[in-house]
């Protein structure tokens, strides 16, 4: 009898674990498109989005946009920046003086400004930019026109983390810095870190979150199928062991 109780206990554990793993992978992934059609920006023009209007972020986010620069600036300018102070810049993207190279920046433990410079933008040409950030992976990735062009990683992964904030998001001019001279469209704020394939989907104008929904039933039944298979394996093994062990013969009375 104890063997059967043990078997049922294993079955419950296997199925519950399969369902719980599925549930952990199904956190709601969404985005808000702050700007859809092209908007003309000048160094003094900006858009502000309050923190409560954006999707809730835990430890990952992504921002994608299309940008068309009309001219370079002789100083560093802002594409977007969350927070109105210098104490936190997660997430933020600047352009370098004279060449408009991308300067993606974040705030991490003990370092208010952690950034790098990559890839000059060509004037009067539309570019798709994807800024993807993950604290579990300790990394920031940058994509231009669907191509991965650079990354920034945290070196001290045990003691440093990306610091997020609850401040407004500034697009264009920031209270402390001038904004771009050009146009921005299709500005999307995601609450998770896009993969390269999802960046390509966004670049082509598709919705990366729909691919996750479409795959959910397959992933669910796939995980459930593995659980059932393991249950059957446990049952067969227990049945085989039970019937393969020969019980000792009892003595007949003389």
State the total count of DSSP E strands.
14
Mean pLDDT: 84
Q: What does the overall shape look like? A: globular
Gap between N and C termini: 32 Å
Radius of gyration: 27 Å
Along the chain, the helix and strand elements come as HEEEEEEEEEEEEEEHH
Main sheet characteristics = 7 strands, antiparallel
Helix content: 25-40%
Derived from helix and strand composition plus strand pairing, the structural class reads alpha+beta
Number of helices: 3
Low-pLDDT stretches: 18-26, 213-221
- How much strand content do the residues show? 25-35%
Characterization of the model:
The strands form 2 sheets. Strands 1, 2, 4, 10, 11, 12 and 14 form a 7-stranded antiparallel beta sheet that branches. Strands 3, 5, 6, 7, 8, 9 and 13 form a 7-stranded antiparallel beta sheet that branches. The protein has helices spanning 2-24, 196-203, 208-244; strands at residues 31-35, 39-41, 46-49, 60-69, 77-82, 92-95, 101-108, 111-115, 118-120, 126-134, 139-144, 147-153, 169-172, 182-190. Helices cover 27% and strands 33% of the residues. The chain is globular, with a radius of gyration of 27 Å. The chain has 3 helices and 14 strands. α1 packs antiparallel against α3. It has 254 residues and is of the alpha+beta class.
